[in-house]
Amino acid sequence: MKIVALDAATLRMDEADWKPLREFGELVLYDRTPYETDAIVERAGDAAVVLTNKVPMGAAELGQLPSLRLISVLATGYNIIDLQAAREQDVTVCNVPAYSTASTAQHTLALMLELCNRVGLHDESVRRGDWIRSPDFAYWKRELVQFEGATVGIVGFGRIGRRVAAGAAALGARILGSAHRRRHTPEDYSFEWAETEDLFERADIVSLHCPQTPENFEFVNADLLRRMKSTAFLVNAARGTLVNERDLAAALSEGRPAGAAVDVLQREPMAPDCPLFKAPNCIITPHIAWSSRPSRLRLLEETAANIQGFSAGEPRNTVG
What we know:
By secondary structure, this protein is α/β, with parallel strands linked by helices. The protein has 12 helices and 12 strands. It folds into 2 domains: 2-99 and 293-311, NAD(P)-binding Rossmann-like Domain (Rossmann fold), CATH 3.40.50.720; 101-284, Rossmann fold, CATH 3.40.50.
């Protein structure tokens, strides 16, 4: 069985880390593949299994891959796959859910704390010599925000949202939750369900943890942002398409909310004209929340298990 990985470089893994997948047959790793039908078909033409993180597999590609039997997405999100076309071609599609819950929650909390304490800003100031020139033993470029007593709103209360909520609560925050289905109500810390609009109005920090759906595309828009406190922060480590970037840039320029931190953008890599690139009080990290080494190792382990299950006639983590 031939297995082709179309964008292996996104995982930044050593050759030895891919060893479990080689047990199922020939494994061919391409660091990157152009998002063009001809290039995709040329590389995956005789593969029974294709692994992809962001390289799209649409009807045009699937129709030219007669040997293909399994697509295992090297991620949780699978919107890059045309599921209808895959069904018509009798191609099974799998993903890897929940492999980066701890890593993503940790990064989200780091973004929250960075907005509150501006560690990076003060480190840069010290390295410019500001502390050497300071007449006082302490100074601050931005007033620090205390986490204890703050209200943190979690939009989307799945595995990652719940982990972030627990971490924020451990630091003394009160938690508001908003979700399509209200399940897993916490009982061991201060928690309250709220409608999304109410959550945006009441929270000191709003953190997004919902999947992308047609219904919530750019739901964080000018109207919701106007509802936020002038002192509040917005954090997004979920999906870039949840936020209208122009509206957020304009809101930050007007001082409501007071700041934002995002790990995801609508276009990745970032476009030169991204509205958030020069927006004030906006922290941007390059989609790294998922990427701790333990998470990436779990991703490959689960992918190997996906291939094993499919080969045994018992597909797992199927989508569509």
